From TrEMBL:
Name of the protein described by the UniProt record: Amino acid ABC transporter permease
Topological relation to the membrane, as annotated: Multi-pass membrane protein
Family label: Belongs to the binding-protein-dependent transport system permease family.
SUPFAM superfamilies: MetI-like
Record carries keyword Transcription regulation: no
Species of origin: Agrilactobacillus yilanensis
NCBIfam families per record: HEQRo_perm_3TM (TIGR01726)
């Protein structure tokens, strides 16, 4: 058993560094961009001067449908549609790119609701005060609302990222050699599924524990200027 652990752990860690962690980081990065865009579009009370009112409503409906679709269907099914289904429509993506697209879209749908709720939690009087100073809506969002909203959103977004790290194991279903796939390959050679799957579970647990520690650290850093009642000093 010790020999199996010693020989398999380096292979699993290599797969984690090469595929699992990059896949989670890249997907979360693009998913977060998509989430912010989706939240802002859904929250805008009226269109800008460059977009007709009907066009704005259609855009909001498209983003609302996107969120509904990816929150209402299983992630594994989404992976299969994008990797195995799209080639029938003439769109063929490499496995890693298909996984990034799927995880990004899925993360964006869930995270957009987190960001939307965080922005909505900021008191309206801050908007009104900024408007009286002559600030435009984009300026208010970037300079006043977003910094406060992101502090509120850090805990749930961190949880989403930790969940995404675990969800990358589903990429094994589309031939990506991440940690779970490698554990399956090693199991096929040594016929020790209980040991191998326990090892890979332990590695995932270590990764997520480190991320949880970083989450708590980030929460403390972003809250150090707040008093106990949550108000700014």
């Amino acid at each position: 058993m010790l020999h199996t652990i010693v020989t398999s752990v380096p292979e699993l860690l290599k797969a984690g560094i090469q595929y699992t962690i990059p896949l989670a980081l890249i997907s979360f990065f693009f998913g977060l961009i998509l989430a912010v865009l989706t939240a802002v579009v859904k929250l805008m009370p009226k269109p800008g001067h460059k977009l007709p009112k009907l066009g704005w409503r259609i855009l909001q409906a498209i983003f609302a449908f996107y969120v509904w679709l990816f929150r209402s269907t299983p992630l594994l099914v989404q992976l299969f549609i994008i990797f195995f289904g799209l080639p029938n429509a003439g769109i063929e993506l490499p496995a890693f790119l298909a996984a990034v697209v799927t995880f990004s879209l899925n993360t964006g749908a869930y995270a957009s609701e987190t960001i939307r709720a965080s922005i909505s939690s900021i008191p309206n009087d801050q908007w009104e005060a900024a408007y009286t100073l002559g600030m435009k809506r984009p300026q208010i969002l970037m300079r006043i609302i977003f910094p406060q909203a992101m502090r509120i959103a850090i805990p749930p977004l961190s949880n989403s990222f930790i969940g995404l790290v675990k969800d990358t194991s589903l990429a094994s279903s589309i031939t990506i050699l991440e940690m779970f796939t490698v554990s399956q390959q090693i199991t096929a050679k040594n016929y020790e599924p209980l040991l191998m799957y326990t090892i890979v579970a332990a590695i995932y647990a270590i990764f997520c524990s480190v991320l949880t520690y970083l989450q708590h650290y980030l929460e403390k850093r972003t809250s150090k200027y707040l008093s106990k009642d949550g108000a700014h000093h």
